[in-house]
Here is the input.
Amino acid sequence: MSIRIAILVSGRGSNMESILRAIKDGQLDAKVEVVIANNPAALALPTSRKYGVHAIAIDNQGLSRAEHEKRVLDELSLHNIDWLVLAGYMRILTTDFLQHFKHQDGYFRVINIHPSLLPAFPGANAYDDAFKYGVRVSGITIHLADEKVDHGPILAQQSFARLEDDSLESFKERGLAVEHKLYPAVLQSIAKHGIQLLPGGLKQEEIVLSD
Here is the structure.
């Protein structure tokens, strides 16, 4: 079943583009109804329009968190969406905001991607923190958002190795490659099977990473 999604972004939107590309290539049965950026200069805006997607900036500068979230909700209310997808959205969502996406089963219909194997290295600098710590293996987590930062039921995790000669930049690049495959794959699993809140997340055989 095709799913209808909205995407929130703050920057260049590389994960957003991986989702749009997967839809275009027939690998993801979904439609992006709207892309919203809190930064008017976000490169994600022209990128999404290139794919024919309605994109809008709702600048948070000069607004209280409550007023900004109200404006975002007002825009989202114009679209019939099943899931709200966070793709590098550098704003913490309040409980009041999340309540608008409360499912009858108790979770929020909001999906986030984070560049670490949560619960390790939450926060905005996960790649840097993991690299400085000296991890030998890091990874990517996709989870349902809840009231805590980088927290909530885990849908999928994919690990990648830190190589001996890695720089921080090459470490990030390897992680981004995983992000760009994992996010569309998890969304496709949701489109195909629905949400599955399992203790270990979605079963690995249900997540197909395209080459």
Observations:
- The domain at 3-206 is CATH 3.40.50.170 (Rossmann fold).
- Strands lie at 3-9, 30-37, 55-57, 83-86, 110-114, 137-144, 154-161.
- The helical segments are 14-24, 44-50, 65-76, 95-98, 126-133, 168-193.
